[in-house]
User: Fold this.
Amino acid sequence: MSDRKRILSGMRATNPRLHLGNYEGALRTWVRLQEDHKLYCMVADYHALTTMGDLPPDLARNSREVAKDFVAAGIDPERSSVFVQSMVPEHAELHLVFSMVTGLGKLERVPTFKEKKDDLGEGRQVSYGLLGYPVLQAADILLYRPFGVPVGKDQAPHLELSREIGRSFNAAFECEVFPEFVDIINEDELRSKLPGLDADESGTLRKMSKSYDNCIYLSDTPDETAERIKGAFTTPTKLRKTDPGVPEGCAVCQYLKLYSPDWEAQWDEDRQGVRGCMQNKKELTEALNEFLRPMRERRALLDDGAIDDILRRGAEEARDFAAQTMRDVRSAMRLV
Ligand code: ATP
Ligand code: MG
Assistant:
């Protein structure tokens, strides 16, 4: 078994396609971390079920496609274990154990539970699974007894709850099965909250999110990327090239900052009214398609058979580790 420090990372399989925000906010960090850590890279299919309502979509397809995006984005299946949550039954087992050491009040107070419950609306059933979401998340993480977990700023409270659940287990069974882990927070402001292609009613950029349908998808073709950029939000008062732009509030300029080496000159010219939005969009399309090219090349090599092999191997490696944790858990609980 590898002696590199372990990292657990994951994403829900609520959609078959990951977007540029998912890459900048999460995947980019994972790809960097796998250089000197052992990365367990999970597609969370059980988690997708907590908010998907009553019509189960094709989850297996979602999981496969998300895994393809992981590998296309640069997760190396030779170094990292890429797997689907439900293929490692120890996640469900540890979830059950943790449910015994987690107070109900604590779960009811989780802000995302209240929000999601309200989103479901009157008369809709609130499932036990929705309430228990953070318990499953704690199991996902602690099963690998990781050194750290990469996370967006908004998820920090969930991770605190995972740590508390680990501590509760250790206290209840007078053991040290679950050591503390650290949060690896993405401090890059633009990348950790990448704006989408549109703006809200007040003309302010908002987060790229599949719920807003304002995304550039990692699996888009170069032409699709070009089309999406054509429709992107720019300075609303810049109707002609000579009108001054406000790059801070323009989606295209924000992306230029990330993907174009010449962005500072481009921003100056945009502000001064010597460059138009069309030119920005054209140059962004070139820069972004260049950036996405290696991802597209890797993705082209991945058919369903190839990704299934990767996921099978990944689940075996994950189970090797998870099974040892469960042996220690059972022994601490005197189940055996
Ligand atoms: P939903 O609309 O269902 O919430 P989403 O598009 O916001 O979906 P998530 O599945 O919530 O995507 O997020 C998966 C991961 O990607 C999380 O780590 C999250 O922090 C990150 N992420 C999502 N959107 C962005 C974004 N716009 N910028 C940076 N990171 C993002
Ligand atoms: Mg989200």
Summary: Residues 209 surround magnesium ion (ligand 2) (CB under 6 Å). Strands lie at 5-12, 37-44, 81-84, 148-151, 182-185, 195-199, 205-207. The chain has 14 helices and seven strands.
